[in-house]
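pinging the channel bc i need a second pair of eyes. not urgent but kinda urgent?? the chain im working w is below, pasted from the shared doc
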Amino acid sequence: VQLVESGGGLVQPGGSLRLSCAASGFTFSSFVMSWYRQAPGKERELVAAISSDGGSTHYANPVKGRFTISRDKAKNTVYLQMNSLKPEDTAVYYCKKSGVRDYWGQGTQVTVSS
């Protein structure tokens, strides 16, 4: 199993970023996929999750209405579109494959600052 995140960077408050997580080594369409984040000095927290068929999504309250999770079966990729970014969104963002055993990507840094 391999999960490779990309798309992080530095953005001003109010800006947007789209994170990608390219998955390989398993049947992508069979598993729930999630995005988590971890800010300095804080515990890792769930940001958003999407069902195996993409028909159901869940968002943490702080990001509802601003972030959108999606997945592309053909590309084995899960995305996180982040709009109206705030300084408190600054964190390392991780992709996770759920299952009997969880797998994590290496993370991508998102910094929201003017």
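so The CA atoms of residues 27 and 76 lie 9 Å apart. and The chain has a mean pLDDT of 97. — does that match what u expected or am i reading it wrong
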